[in-house]
Amino acid sequence: MSLPPGFLDELRNRVPISQVVGRKVIWDNRKSNQAKGDFWAPCPFHQEKSASFHVDDRKGFYYCFGCHAKGDALGFVQETENVGFMEAVEILAREAGMQMPARDPQAAKQADRATKLAAAMEAAVAHYRLQLKTGAAAEARAYLDRRGLDASALDRFEIGFAPGIRQGALTALTGKGIPEADVVEAGIATRPDDGGAPYDAFRDRIMFPIRDARGRCIGFGGRAMDPNARAKYLNSRETPLFDKGRALYNHGPARDAAGKGQPLVVAEGYMDVIALVQAGFGASVAPLGTAITADQLRLMWRIADEPIIALDGDKAGLRAALRLVDLALPMLEPGKTLRFCLMPEGLDPDELIKARGRDAMQAQLDASEPLVRMLWRRETEGQVFDTPERRAALDRRLRQAIGQIPDQGLRRHYGEALADLRRALFRPAAQQGRDRAPWRGRGFAEAQMPLAETRSSALGSGALSAEDLRVMLILATLCRYPALAPRFETDLDRLAPRHADHAALVDLILTAEAADDAAMTAACTAAGLGPALESLRSMAHLRINPILAGPPDAARAEACLTEEFAKYHAERALKAEMTEALEDLDHLSEGDTRLGRRLNHAVQRRLTAGRSAGSDMQGAVSEDTDALSDRLRALIEARVWEKKTR
Predict the structure, then answer these.
(1) pLDDT confidence band for 440 (50 / 70 / 90)
(2) What is the average pLDDT across 23-28?
(3) Phi and psi at residue 233, in whole multiples of 5°?
(4) Would you say residue 322 has pLDDT above 60?
(5) Pairing state of beta strands 160-162 and 205-211?
(6) Which CATH superfamily is domain 110-302 in?
(7) How many C-beta atoms lie closer than 10 Å to residue 573's C-beta?
(8) What pLDDT score does 2 carry?
(9) Bridge partner list, 55
(10) If you ran DSSP here, which 8-state letter would residue 41 be given?
(11) Is 50 exceeded by the pLDDT of residue 443?
């Protein structure tokens, strides 16, 4: 069976050789430098104690300095699994989630066709380079000189020029024996829709060859010399060789530089990459003038674990960064992330280096922000959070964003980082400089981190109101049954704990997305809330509660939470109504019987609610509400509105 062109390249890109070999060997961590894709282990093909078997993850090859075995991921599978080539391809394809192509008898012919197209592209590179030295390219050479590209840079990046001649490249390549059909199919020339004679795809443009990871020229980028041209930069059209969504400019050299320890810098355009490389940042690439695609992001992560996205310091650059956040979140995994380096306003990397030098660019890279901060910036910058509704909306957006992260542990760490940022944003200014200052605010988004002295606090001493006890029952139940949290998300948002530890637990329950009790306990420990959870579970009235002490029963727990939240919200509503009624006494006038009826109604509602809820409700009623009820009842019995004012 023959495979279509590009299938094996895609397969090798998707499955790192270290992942394949790692199933058969134990890496020598003292000798390996996994961050750079450099792995060493005892050879699986011959008996040895030393680690002489080397795997280069970026180049995709292995080599044993003892027995001289060598090959790629497919060869390793063939040798270790004792299978043929196509069977090895099928094994890796399943691992990569790629569907094996249908048997295609034309695949061999297509592979031969790709070889011929690659030859046409190399001939075009030579032709364009030669044209840059002609008189027709004088303006182009002057432009490149103004941009700081000397002869060595022109040679290094193989920069050329396409004269403004309708059939210049076509005539030159066919004159060397390359068929016209190959020139057209490679994207060097274009055949008009009306069936007329082909013409050059690039005219009056500075030409930048685009090579794949193996060094083959697969396309071109052309920069127009005419300021009125419809497209300042023009890429080759899609061809059997070129898919701009799966290619990076300067891919091969950047991979080699990254393998030597340089950070991978992702810029927007060709000139930015050239300027960065000339300044010493050899591991620099660009996504060919388009928004970064998922395939390009995978290519970057094959080169480096933390690419630095260096975008232009304008609104378009910021928008591109924010779009990339959405693309990256569902693809994140432990060890694979992005950093963002936003240039000073109005400057791109090329301009920054020319204006301020290499050190200025290095300083920008050193100050690059992690992806989590870019996510936070997107959701908060330029906004005001002066109401509970706006804060709740922020929390919901953040939960939805990090909910896209597939790895549960990584998702939890993102939740913790965002919780820290929320606390810093919503903490009153008077508390910004005080460590562990007591918090008197309301709402989980405003809570500080728990106190270290949890056991000696009010939570441990038992100095709690009835409302606190109800909150604690709700939190302890949700910590044991965290999978119920989404069902009560709205109720949790309305919860207003009086204690910072309770508020922090609410925050964690909403963000941790733990599946069970053990996962929730681990999340609390990781977030520094272990003592708070332990104190919660050690409370006497919770230890004997059947929902918490008995065997797991999610249905019963859900019913309990439904009832407790209803009581909590009802009690707070009644308290608010009675407080308002008492405030109305300040405006009492003689003969105001309507106020009397209103006060009586408030008390009766309070007493009726207590009786209908049973002994549990009556025993857990807030002391403050009781006091309000007693005072209102006394005023009603005295019929204060009938007294004469004096």
Answers:
(1) very low
(2) 88
(3) -120, 135
(4) yes
(5) antiparallel
(6) DNA primase, catalytic core, N-terminal domain (3.90.980.10)
(7) 12
(8) 64
(9) 39, 62
(10) E
(11) no
Q: How far apart are CA 519 and CA 106, in angstroms?
A: 53
d(CA 38, CA 54): 8
For residue 174, give both structure tokens: 């066919």
**Nearest-angstrom CA–CA distance, 629 and 627:** 5
Distance from chain centroid for Cα 325: 5
Residue bearing the bigger pLDDT, 640 or 284: 284
Map tokens 């996504």 to a residue. 287
Average pLDDT, the chain: 82
- pLDDT category at 211 given cuts 50, 70, 90 is very high
> Buried (b) or exposed (e) across 195-207, using 16+ Cβ within 10 A?
eeebbbbbbbbbb
* Distance between CA atoms of residues 137 and 160, nearest Å: 9
Residues 6+ apart with CB under 8 A from 616: none
Tell me if residue 233 falls in helix, strand or coil: strand
- 3-class SS of residue 499: coil
Q: In what order do the strands lie in the sheet with 205-211?
A: 160-162, 205-211, 217-224, 233-235
| HEC string for 380-449 | HCCCCCCCHHHHHHHHHHHHHHHCCCCCHHHHHHHHHHHHHHHHHHHCCHHHCCCCCCCCCCCCHHHCCC
In the three-class reduction of DSSP (H, G, I as helix; E, B as strand; rest coil), residue 640 is classed as helix
131: its two tokens: 């044209």
Beta strand pairing status for 265-266 and 308-311?
parallel
Q: 294 Cβ partners below 8 Å, 6+ apart? A: 327, 331
Looking at residue 132, what is its pLDDT?
96
Cβ of 355: how many Cβ atoms within 10 Å? 10
pLDDT surpassing 70 at residue 632: no
Query: Does the structure show a pLDDT above 70 at 511?
Result: yes
CB contact at 8 A, 269 and 316: no
Lowest-pLDDT choice from 75-89, 104-118, 340-354, 428-442: 428-442
Rounded CA-CA distance 256/140 in Å is: 30
Confidence band (pLDDT; 50, 70, 90) for 626? low
In the three-class reduction of DSSP (H, G, I as helix; E, B as strand; rest coil), residue 223 is classed as strand
Give the whole-angstrom CA distance, residue 517 versus residue 549.
13
Tokens of 415: 């939740």
| DSSP letters spanning 80-118 | HHT--HHHHHHHHHHHHTPPPPPP-TTHHHHHHHHHHHH
Check residue 362 and give its pLDDT: 95
CA atoms within 13 A of residue 120's CA, in its CB half-sphere: 30
CATH superfamily of 7-96: Zinc finger, CHC2-typedomain (3.90.580.10)
Lowest mean pLDDT among 194-208, 237-251, 369-383, 533-547: 533-547
Identify any residues that bridge with 310 across adjacent strands, giving them in sequence order: 341
Q: What is the DSSP string of 242-301?
A: --GGG--BTHHHHHHHHHTTPPPEE-SSHHHHHHHHHTT--SEEB-TTSPPPHHHHHHHH
In this structure, the number of other CB atoms found within 10 A of the CB of residue 612 comes to 8
**Most distant CA atoms of the chain, gap in Å:** 117
Taking the C-alpha atoms of residue 527 and residue 412, their distance in angstroms, rounded to an integer, is: 9
User: What pTM was estimated for this model as a whole?
Assistant: 0.57
* Cα separation, 18 vs 36, whole angstroms: 12
Sign, CA torsion 176/178/181/187: negative
